[in-house]
Design brief:
The complex is a heterodimer of chains A (213) and B (407). Chain A is α/β, with parallel strands linked by helices. Helices cover 53% and strands 14% of the residues of chain A. Chain A has a 6-stranded parallel β-sheet, with helices on both faces. Chain A is globular. The chains are: A alpha/beta (213), B alpha+beta (407). Chain B: It catalyses: ATP + protein L-histidine = ADP + protein N-phospho-L-histidine.
Chain lengths: 213, 407
C-alpha cells in the first residue's frame, strides 16, 4: 500500500510516517501545507491520503478543503482526515458525496496503532471510518427516534456508524455474527432505512440518517 | 521670524517690546480673518435658511447640496485655526453619508446635530462673532486712517481724531489677546464636541479595542495549545502506540520510542505552563502584583530594583493589566535599551495606582511601537494612562497610572 501524508507539525508527521511504515504502508509523499497537498492529490499512484484538517497557510480547514475538492474531481478517492478536534460539520462535508472511502479520526486514535492501520486499510478498500466522538455527537443529536432502539441495538448502531463490519462488531461485543445480523436488521426496520447488502453502504445509510438527511 | 501657528500667549499685560508688538499684530491679522469670514458665513446662512423650507420642492435639496459641504469646509477651517490658537484639537463627528446616493444626503443632514451646530455657527459668525472680531482690526485701523487723513488733509477734525489714536492703540494693545481668545473659545463651544461626547466616544473606542484584543488573545491561546501541548501529547501517544507494537519484535526500537515519548511529555508540560502563565501567572494569583513583579525581575539578565509602597491587593483584572504592562516594559528594556540597571516603582494613594518603570539605557523608546501601544490599550480599558519619556541617549522612564480606589 502507498500513502500521501499531509501534516504541518513535524513531530506528528514523523510519528505518522513511522507508524504507516511499521504497518507496511509506504509514504510516497509527505507534505506540510495546503498547496503542496493539492499538488500531491493530483497523483494517481497512492492508495490512501492521510491529512490534517488544519494546514498552513491559513490554518483553518485547508486539508479538509483539499480532500473534498480532490474527491469531487476523483470520486471515492480514499482520504483519511485527522484532527485534534472533532467537528460533526466536517464529517458531514466528507460524507456528503455518499461514496465511502473516507475516514475522520481524532489524532489521539493514532496511538492505538493497530486500530489506526486497520482503519487506513479499510478506507483504502472503500470503507468508511468515523471517530467514536463524531458518532457520539451525532447519536446524541438524534436522541428521540433512537429511543425506539434497545440498549444493545444502540451499541451495534454506534459501532456500525464507526465503520465496522459485522464481523468486527461481533468480536467487539463478544457475540456471534448471526446475533449482530439480527440486531442490524432490527435497527434498519425500526429506523426505516433501506436494507443494503454490503457493509459500507449500510454504514453510509446509518450516517446519512444520523446526519439528519 | 514669527510662528504663525503658535497658540495665544498669556492675557496679562506684557512689556512693550518688538516680539510682543509682532504677537499683537499676528492676533489682529487672525481677528481680521475671523471678521472677513463673516461674509461667506452670512451667504451660506441665507442659502441654508432658504434651502430648509424649499427642500420639499426639490430646489432646497440642490441648494443644500451646495451649501452644506461648503459650510463644512468653512467650519473645518475655523476648527483648525481656533484649535491652533487654543493649543487644542477641536474635532467634529459628522454622520457618514459617503455610502448614500447624493440626493438622499440632505435628509440625513437634517437629522445630524453636528450640521445644525454648523448652521448655528454661521449665524454667530455673521453677527456677534463679526463684531467681536472686527474690534481689534478696527482699533488699529482707526489710528492708521487718522494719521493718513492728517497727512493728506491737515484739518482740525483729523487732528482731534488723531489725538484719539493713543487711547485707541492702548485699548487695542490690552484687549486684543482677550478678544481673540474669546472668539476662539466661542468657536470651540459651538463647533467642538462637548466633553461628555468626547468621553463617550473614547469609552466606546477603548471598549472596542478591548474586545478586539481579547479576541486576539483567545485566538493566540487556542493556537498555542493546538500547536504546542496538544500536538506534543498526540505525538507521545503515537510513539507509545508504536512502541507497544514493536515491543515483541524490536525491543530496542521500542525503548528508544518510549524515551522520546518521555522527553516529549516534558516539553508538552512546559508548553502548558507557558500558556497558563500567559493567561494568568500563578504567582500573580497567589502573591499579588508586588510578588509577581518581583518574580518577573528574578529571571531578567539585569538588576532590577522594585519598590512597592503600600500597594494593596487590587481587583484581579487591574492587577493583571498592570502586571502585563510592567512585563512588556521590562521586556523592551532587555531587548532594546542596552541598560545596566532598571527599576520598578509602584505607589497607591488610595485613589490611583502609579507605576514607573525605567532604565539607564540608550533611550529612544517608541510610544507608538506595537508593544507600548498594546500596553496603552490594556490600561485604557481601565481609564489608565501611559507616558513615555525616553530621550535619545536615555534614560527611559515609562509612567503608568490607573485609577482604582482601595477596595
Amino acid at each position: 500500500m502507498r500513502a500521501v501524508l499531509a501534516e504541518d507539525q513535524a513531530l506528528l508527521r514523523v510519528g505518522l510516517e513511522r507508524i504507516l511504515a511499521a504497518g507496511g504502508i509506504e509514504v510516497i509523499e509527505s507534505v506540510d501545507n495546503g498547496p503542496s497537498l493539492e499538488r500531491a492529490l493530483e497523483r494517481d499512484d497512492f492508495d490512501i491520503a492521510v491529512t490534517d484538517v488544519r494546514l498552513p497557510p491559513t490554518f483553518t480547514t485547508e486539508g479538509l478543503a483539499a480532500a473534498v475538492a480532490a474527491r469531487s474531481r476523483r470520486p471515492a478517492l480514499p482520504i483519511l482526515v485527522l484532527s485534534q478536534y472533532v467537528e460533526p460539520l466536517y464529517a458531514r462535508d466528507l460524507l456528503a458525496d455518499g461514496r465511502g472511502a473516507v475516514g475522520y479520526l481524532l489524532k489521539d486514535r493514532v496511538s492505538d496503532v493497530d486500530e489506526f492501520l486497520a482503519a487506513a486499510r479499510q478506507i483504502a478498500g472503500g470503507g468508511t471510518v468515523l471517530d467514536p466522538e463524531v458518532v457520539a455527537s451525532l447519536v446524541t443529536r438524534r436522541e428521540r427516534p433512537l429511543d425506539r432502539l434497545t440498549e444493545r441495538e444502540r451499541e451495534v448502531l454506534t459501532l456500525m456508524a464507526e465503520g465496522r463490519s459485522n464481523a468486527a462488531i461481533a468480536a467487539r461485543m463478544f457475540v456471534t455474527e448471526k446475533a449482530v445480523g439480527k440486531h442490524t436488521n432490527s435497527i434498519f426496520t425500526k429506523l426505516d432505512l433501506p436494507q443494503a447488502a454490503d457493509d459500507n453502504r449500510r454504514v453510509l445509510a446509518v450516517l446519512a440518517w444520523l446526519n439528519g438527511e | 521670524m514669527t510662528d504663525w501657528s503658535a497658540p495665544i500667549g498669556g492675557l496679562r499685560p506684557e512689556p512693550l517690546d518688538v516680539p510682543t508688538l509682532v504677537e499683537r499684530l499676528r492676533l489682529t491679522v487672525f481677528s481680521a480673518g475671523y471678521a472677513a469670514a463673516a461674509v461667506p458665513a452670512l451667504a451660506l446662512a441665507i442659502v441654508t435658511l432658504v434651502a430648509i423650507p424649499t427642500g420639499l420642492a426639490g430646489v432646497g435639496v440642490l441648494l443644500a447640496l451646495a451649501a452644506v459641504p461648503a459650510t463644512q469646509a468653512l467650519t473645518t477651517a475655523h476648527r483648525r485655526v481656533s484649535g491652533l490658537l487654543l493649543d487644542d484639537e477641536i474635532t467634529a463627528a459628522y454622520r457618514d453619508t459617503s455610502d448614500l446616493p447624493v440626493l438622499a444626503r440632505p435628509f440625513v443632514w437634517l437629522r445630524d446635530g453636528e450640521r445644525w451646530r454648523d448652521f448655528g455657527f454661521l449665524c454667530f459668525s455673521a453677527t456677534g462673532g463679526f463684531v467681536l472680531s472686527l474690534l481689534p482690526a478696527a482699533l488699529v485701523a482707526g489710528p492708521v486712517t487718522y494719521a493718513i487723513g492728517l497727512v493728506v488733509d491737515t484739518s482740525w477734525a483729523w487732528f482731534w481724531l488723531a489725538l484719539l489714536s493713543g487711547p485707541l492703540l492702548f485699548v487695542w494693545w490690552v484687549t486684543t489677546p482677550a478678544l481673540v481668545r474669546a472668539r476662539a473659545l466661542a468657536e470651540r463651544g459651538i463647533l467642538g464636541r462637548s466633553r461628555l461626547e468626547a468621553r463617550l466616544e473614547e469609552v466606546e473606542e477603548s471598549r472596542a479595542e478591548v474586545v478586539d484584543s481579547s479576541a486576539a488573545e483567545i485566538r493566540r491561546i487556542e493556537r498555542d495549545l493546538h500547536d504546542g501541548a496538544q500536538a506534543r501529547i498526540a505525538a507521545v501517544g503515537m510513539n507509545v502506540g508504536l512502541a507497544e507494537k514493536l515491543m515483541a519484535t524490536d525491543p530496542e526500537a521500542a525503548a528508544a520510542l518510549l524515551r522520546e515519548a518521555r522527553e516529549t511529555t516534558v516539553s508538552a508540560l512546559e508548553d502548558l505552563r507557558s500558556v497558563v502563565r500567559g493567561i494568568l501567572p500563578p504567582v500573580l494569583a497567589d502573591q499579588g502584583l508586588a510578588g509577581a513583579v518581583e518574580a518577573l525581575t528574578i529571571g531578567l539578565p539585569l538588576p532590577v530594583t522594585t519598590t512597592f509602597d503600600d500597594v494593596p491587593r487590587l481587583p484581579a483584572p487591574i492587577e493583571s493589566a498592570a502586571y502585563f504592562a510592567v512585563a512588556e516594559c521590562l521586556a523592551n528594556t532587555v531587548k532594546h535599551a542596552q541598560a545596566t540597571r532598571a527599576f520598578v516603582r509602584a505607589t497607591h494613594d488610595g485613589e490611583r495606582l502609579r507605576i514607573a518603570v525605567g532604565d539607564d539605557g540608550r533611550g529612544g523608546a517608541d510610544p507608538g511601537g506595537s508593544g507600548l501601544t498594546g500596553v496603552h490599550k490594556r490600561l485604557g480599558a481601565f481609564d489608565g494612562t501611559l507616558a513615555v519619556t525616553s530621550p535619545a541617549g536615555g534614560p527611559t522612564t515609562i509612567t503608568m497610572e490607573v485609577p482604582c480606589p482601595t477596595p
